[in-house]
Structures are given as C-alpha cells and as structure tokens.
Amino acid sequence: MTEIDKRNLKNYLYCTFGITYIVWGLLAMFTQSHILGLETIIGRTLHIVGALGPAIASGFYLKSNNIKFKHFLFNKIENSSIYFIIHLLAILILFSVSSLELNEVSIYLMPLFFIQLIFFGGGHEEFGWRGILQPLLDKKYTYWQSNLIVGSIWGIWHLPLWFIVGESHQGFPFILFFIYTLFLSFVLGLLYRQTKSVGYCILFHAFANLLNLYFVLKINLIFIIIFIGYLIYTILASNRISKEGKEFVSKITGYTLENEGDFVQGNKVEITNI
Asked: Is 68 helix (H, G, I), strand (E, B) or coil?
C-alpha cells in the first residue's frame, strides 16, 4: 500500500463517518428529545442523507483520483455473472430454507422495494465498502484480515441507528447484526474478488436486504449449518483465487509473492513490494 493509498483510505473513512455520524447523531438527539420523529419529512431526510455517507464519500474519491464512474461501476471480469448467480442462490437458500415464515409485506411491491434498497437501503453502500475500501485494504492485508476489517468498519458504521427512536434496526441485537455484517463481508469480499464488479456487489447487497425484509429471520440449526457451510465456501474459494494468482505471477516472472496484496486488478497483474 502506497502513501497515496493510505491517504485515500483515511480521507474516505473520515468523509464517510463524518457525514453519517453527524447526520444520524443529530437525528438520534432529535428523536430522543422528542423534537421530531423519524417518520416526519425532516426525520426521513436526515435518515437518508446519513445512509448516503459511503456513496457521497465515494464520489469525492472518484473525482480526486480521476476515475470514471462508468468504468468504476460496470467494470467486471469476463463470464463472471455465473458467480453472481451462485451467490444469489446461496443467500436465498440461507434465508428461505431456515425460515419458511414470511413477513406481512406485499409481494407485488417487491420490485419497488428492490429498487429502493439499491439506491437508499444498503446497495449504495457498496460504492465504498467493496468499491474503495476492499481494494485498498487488499493491497496490504490477507483475505481474512481485509474482510474482517471491512466487516468491522461496516458494522460500526451502523451503530448510530440503535440510538434513533423508531429505527427498525433496534429490533435486532447489535452484536448479532455485527456478526452478520462480518459474514456478509466475507461473502461480498469473495464476490468482488471473483467478478471485480462493484455493480454486482450493489445488487447482491440489495437482494440480501430484500430477503431480510420478506423472510422472518430464524437463527436455528438449519440456519447455522448453511451459514457455516457458506462461510467455509467463501474462505476456500478465496484461498484458491489467491493461490492461482500467486502461481500465475510466479510462473511468468520467476518471483514468489509472499502477500496476497502483491498482485491483482482483475486479469491485470501488478508486481509490487519486490
């Protein structure tokens, strides 16, 4: 990781947490003081603005680094859609098989909810988490380390929601939510590695939140078995990607790479730290 990367990482995190914590902090104070409610126009506006922190910070990052938005969002590895479909099916099985009970939400509104979740309900966060944070951390840390860091930052970023009166996240213990974000960090981290697509990560994040909206989440034996199996798959698959990448670089250069971050940008190979 270069000094420029370190500066970009710090600036992104400062901007993301600055926007979100200031706005959601104000909303928490307003709702707890009964100055205004979450369901008011001002309350909803503050809630949305705070949620857009990662996306807004991403916009500043792209502009300062002269990265074209179209390339950033739609870039992907050839024939990577199969991995996207596999992950969609896996997360669907995780929710549906472990819980056959549905929330009382109209299925006819599913397309509208999905679109809303892409832009304001979680999907947009992937501009930052997998689009910026993950690639920067992958330059220095291993798969395990970078995903744990991203997942921890992602979980902590949500913390103010537990102080906003009437916010839906309060119905779920923060520690369990934090564990869930760590799990999804491994899943989305693998999806990004397999596809190099921020767009796919946005759609997957929104789809996972859509399932959480429709299914009554039950942490039972079936859920735990599928959860652990899916997590093991992400670890094994990512280790295979890392091993193949190192072997490829060693084959064409004669160098042996010690760190996962010594290579990778899709099919393009970069040699650093040699």
From this structure: coil
Q: How far apart are CA 148 and CA 92, in angstroms?
A: 23
The predicted model gives 230-259 an average pLDDT of 69
Angle CA 180–98–110, to nearest 5: 80
- Whether the CB-CB separation of 203 and 118 falls below 8 Å is answered with yes
Residue in this structure with the two tokens 């997942």, named with its chain if needed:
151
At 90-127, the pLDDT tens digits run 999 988 887 778 888 998 999 999 999 999 999 999 99
Q: Identify the residue whose tokens are 């010690």.
A: 258
The letter for the amino acid at 133 is L
- Angle among Cα 237, 239, 245 to the nearest 5 degrees reads 105
Counting DSSP H helices and E strands in the chain, the numbers are: 12, 0
**Alpha-carbon distances, residue 56 vs 4, 156, 228, 238 (angstroms):** 20, 18, 34, 29
Q: Does the pLDDT at position 266 exceed 70?
A: no
Would the pTM count as exceeding 0.90? no
Residue 89 CB burial class (10 angstroms; 0-12, 13-18, ≥19)? exposed
